Amino acid sequence: EVIERAIALWAARLGAATQVDDVGAYREEISEFGWWFISPTFDVDWALTQLQLALRFAGFVEFAHMVVKRLAEIVDTRPVPVLTALHLLISSDSQGFLSLGWDSVTDILRSALSSSEIGVRQQAETLTHELGARGYRNFRDLLREAK
After folding, report:
1. What is the pTM of this model?
2. Where are the alpha helices (DSSP H) in the chain?
């Protein structure tokens, strides 16, 4: 019952945020979803979907390095939404907070690059190249490992 009420609260707050002209008033509140995401209490698929919505709305989430750690824990079972969320996190990381979670980013990319699904591997390669373009060239070794 508590989880259902929390999910309903989140839906109401996100719904309210998307209905206003001044989204800036809700940006900080929606970014707090990072705290929710790291909890294993919520259904993984629901949490991944909401994380992506929060990132698209707010442009960032709080506790990003722990969010990446949680993503690394679930990448093997849900690689596509994990890579999508990681891409959104990397795109929004203007302050460098994500660097606290580089080990988890490495784990995510290594797992995805070794996937038997070609689409997952391609998505991971694209993300690895994007990181390289941003100056994080240490991830290129993962591309060599995967070949």
Report:
1. 0.92
2. 2-18, 24-31, 33-37, 44-58, 64-74, 79-92, 102-113, 118-133, 140-146
